[in-house]
Amino acid sequence: MPARFRTGVRNGLDVVEIDAAAATAEVALQGAQLLSFVPRGGRDWLWVSGRARWAPGAALRGGIPICFPWFGAHPTQPSLPAHGFARTRPWGLAGVQEIGDSVRVDLTLASDEATLALFPHPFAARLEITVGDDLGLAFEVSNPGDAPLSFEVALHSYLAVADLDQIAIEGLGGCPFVDKVAGGARRREGEAPLRIAGEVDRVYDSEGPVTLIDPAGGRSLRLESAGAGSTVVWNPAAAKTATLTDMTPDGFRRFVCVETGAIGARRVTVGPGQMHRLKALYRAAG
User: Catalytic: 259?
Assistant: First the structure.
C-alpha cells in the first residue's frame, strides 16, 4: 500500500486516511462517505456536525454522503430509510493508487439479500475519490441483471462556510427547480446569485457548473459535474435545525449543501449489462 494511505478508526467507524501532496482527506468505509478534504495550509472544504451519530448503520450528518438508490423519502414506502441505504452500508476497499501527486481510493458496494429486500434490483456500485489539488468523485452504477435498472443518486456535499448570511451561489440563474419547502411547487430561479434567507430545499434542473462564494471565509469553490442533471441546494435554517437531534442549534450557519445528482425526472435508467457514471469535481475558484 502507498505511504500516502493508511486505515484507522474514528469514533468507532473504520476510516481511510489519505495524505496527498496538496491535501489530506478522510473517508469512512461505512457509506463510502468522505468526511474531510483539507488543502495544505487551508481549512476543511467539508462540514461535519458536532452532534453527528458515529455508529454502525446510522446516517452520519456531514461530509459527502451518497444518496442511492432513491433521494429523500422513498416515493411509495416512506417507512424505508431516507436517501436510500448506500450511506449506511459497509463498502469494500477495492484499491488505492498514486497518480502523480494525487491519491485515488476506490470503494465498492454490491446488491445482496439485505439490499434486495429494500430495492429488488441487482446492482454493482463503485465510488472513486481522487485527492489532489482538486477533489474528484466518480460514482458508477452497473446493471448485472436482465431488466432495466432505474434509480436516483446524489452526492450530498455539506460545504463548510464561515458565515451563511454572506454566501452567494452562482450558476443557477434562470434554472427551473422543485421547491420542497413550498410543497414541491415548480419555480424558476432569478438571474441574481442565490442567497440563503431561511430554509432552502431545492432540486434544480441543472448539472452546473456552480460556484459557492464565501467572502467571510475568503474563498470560493466551483462544483463541476457530468452524468448528473440535478443540482440540489439545502440548508435547514433555525426552525428545522431545532428538530434535528444530530445538529447543534447554530450548526446550520456553518454549511450549505450544494449537491450533484440525478433526481426525479432526471433519474437514471441503465439497461442490462450497462453502466452509468456520475462525476463531481470540486476546485478552488479564488
Answer: yes
Q: Are 221 and 159 in contact (CB under 8 A)?
A: yes
- Which residue, 26, 7, 15, 22, is CA-closest to 98? 22
74 catalytic, yes or no? no
pLDDT in tens, 251-284: 999 999 999 999 999 999 999 999 999 999 999 9
Per annotation, catalytic residue among 189, 224, 259, 276: 259
- In order of 34, 64, 70, 192, 276, the CA distances from 151 in angstroms are 22, 19, 6, 32, 11
- Return the bridge partners of 43, or none: none
Q: Where are the domains of the chain?
A: 5-284
| Residue in 152, 156, 189, 224 annotated catalytic | 156
Q: Can you name the CATH fold of 5-284?
A: Beta-galactosidase; Chain A, domain 5 (2.70.98)
How many Å apart are CA 189 and CA 112, to the nearest integer?
41
C-alpha distances in angstroms, 218 versus 14, 88, 131, 142, 163? 33, 34, 22, 40, 11
Q: Which DSSP helix (H) or strand (E) runs through 113? A: helix 113-118
- Tell me: the pLDDT tens digits for 130-168? 999 999 999 999 999 999 999 999 999 999 999 999 999
pTM given for the model? 0.96
- What is d(CA 52, CA 47) in angstroms, rounded to the nearest whole number? 11
Rounded-to-integer distance, Cα 144 and Cα 16, Å: 28
